[in-house]
């Protein structure tokens, strides 16, 4: 908890003086990496690759009223996984539909254990509510959404996942200030909600892991 408190204090401090942003970024990143190291091995890991679970996902979707014909899930060389048509699709033809009950939404989060949490920030920030909703369901082997959760990627190609050296290359670009701000805000949100959740939710307290909350 000491590292979390230190991280929250660091991320809640005023913006650094001009020219000091990189120094602050390294300090915050150092704390985050220490936390990630301590949490290594705590997250639930699914066997195999995410694509191994695509058949289960499609079966689950079909059983719950989604369309699953006329296309298939394939991996494209540059774009990654996506849908590929297996037949001709006419202009304006409705070929894909997903019932709302299959979606993980702010509404479904509020109807879960999260709806009982007395925190106004959690209630007001939909992205945070969804992140913790996903954590709760991911920790539940019998979750209705488990066939979907198993197919989610484990990382994304965004600055939040860049190595320190990659961020350093961007220091002379206009994007660097947004990267610093995003990293600091993400770390602050995590530290705040980690401290908030710990005494309240037995389901969440052992699964509020940095890599899972912001994957």
Topology:
Layout: H1 2-11, H2 21-39, H3 54-63, E1 71-76, E2 80-85, H4 106-110, H5 120-124, H6 126-138, H7 146-149, H8 164-169, H9 176-197, H10 210-213
Family: Belongs to the class V-like SAM-binding methyltransferase superfamily. SETD3 actin-histidine methyltransferase family.
Protein name: protein-histidine N-methyltransferase
Enzyme class: transferase
Structural description of this entry:
Belongs to the class V-like SAM-binding methyltransferase superfamily. SETD3 actin-histidine methyltransferase family. This protein is mainly alpha-helical and 215 residues long. It folds into two domains: 2-64 and 99-213, set domain protein methyltransferase, domain 1 (Alpha-Beta Complex), CATH 3.90.1410.10; 67-98, no CATH class. It is 46% helix and 6% strand. It contains ten helices and two strands; from the N terminus they run H-H-H-E-E-H-H-H-H-H-H-H. The chain has helices at residues 2-11, 21-39, 54-63, 106-110, 120-124, 126-138, 146-149, 164-169, 176-197, 210-213, and strands spanning 71-76, 80-85. A two-stranded antiparallel sheet has the order 1-2. The longest helix has 22 residues, at 176-197. The radius of gyration is 20 Å and the shape is globular. The mean pLDDT is 86.
Assigned CATH class of the largest domain: Alpha Beta
Low-confidence stretches: none
Contiguous helical run count: 10
Helix content: 40-55%
Tally of strands = 2
Radius of gyration: 20 Å
Tertiary shape? globular
The CATH homologous superfamily of the largest domain is named set domain protein methyltransferase, domain 1
EC number: 2.1.1.85
Enzyme class: transferase
Keywords: Methyltransferase, S-adenosyl-L-methionine, Transferase
Protein name: protein-histidine N-methyltransferase
